[in-house]
Please model this.
Amino acid sequence: MAIFDEVQNLLMDKQHGDQSGEDLAYVIRVGRAYGIIAVLATQRPDAKIITTAITGLILGRFCLMVPDQPANDLVLGTTAYKRGYDATVFRPKLDAGLGWLKGGEDGIPQICRTYYLDLPATERIAARARDIRDRAGVLTGYALGEFETAEARDVLADVLAVFGDAPGLHWDELADRLANRWPDRWADITGDTVSSQLRSKGVPSVVVSAAGVKARGCRRVSIDKVRP
Model:
């Protein structure tokens, strides 16, 4: 689970905001299949802060006390206030933790209360959870001290190995080459994924002309510059 509190500070950043928005939308779109959940928290999720490319993918929404109807409907959806899903009625301090939760298969909001967990309470919960799993015999991997020994893949080295003599490759073509060369570790790679991984290493995404087609990809010279 990746939690972004005050996510507007990231999405409105002049240098990283636009790219962060694209990356978040991608993670939310494909993350569920890999058990990755993104939680975005902000006081006002309007379209200037969180684009529809992101809000359209968010299934679960939780609205604590808000000051007015527009803010209420920004979180819970248009007409939520008129239909009685009103988070303006919650009282400061007295109703702390109460909010409207919208999610699940039916999408019908319901009032739920959250609870504040300090570090000692969190440690007790974690210890209890481990004990339950231990008694059930389902502890595995890291929880039993078993460490991953598989060699970590070097995305830059692997990409260079499949580049061949091409000065540049489209992201989709690069993903196909990786999957064909090393199906054991790149079988599920996509153009978006390899793009994200290389951009995180400092390789820019640019328009590449290959086989008479122009599409976004990367150039070999850019990879050579960032590889140690």
The first strand starts at residue 2 and ends at 4. The first helix runs from residue 8 to 11.
